[in-house]
Amino acid sequence: MAEDPEAAADGLSGFTVFAASPREDVAYAKVFWNSLSLQPPLESRLVSGDITQRLRVAPAVGSDRCRCRLSSADKKARQKEIAFEMKMKAEQKAVYLEKAKKRKEILVLIQQRREQSIQVSVCWGWGGGEALCVWGEWWGGGGSEQEARSE
Question: Which spans of this chain does the record mark as coiled coil (predicted)?
């Protein structure tokens, strides 16, 4: 496919000329391009372009026309439901706070045991196996801390 210099001179530079192409291919190409550029017939359109056929916009959700009036019994029932829900949430919150408190206590206990374990292992290494330091106190070896260290 190439552009024809004569067509460009005539002001038809936007068109494509099929030079050295079989007539059958040219016909298929023309049908293809025409099908792409044509609009569908009016009968096949789902909605006409006329504005009068368009539906009105639906009213807002919170408009006064849609609100229904609750009777006093319904209001009392709704208030009871709300009170019950708030009570349940408060109880659930209390349970969660209790669990959080227990968790903190367990973490403190774990930290204390970890520190004690570290102290025991450090003291065990100093005494050469003869003395044992448990929570800062020396056991075994029959003497004071200084004597246990010197052994």
Answer: none
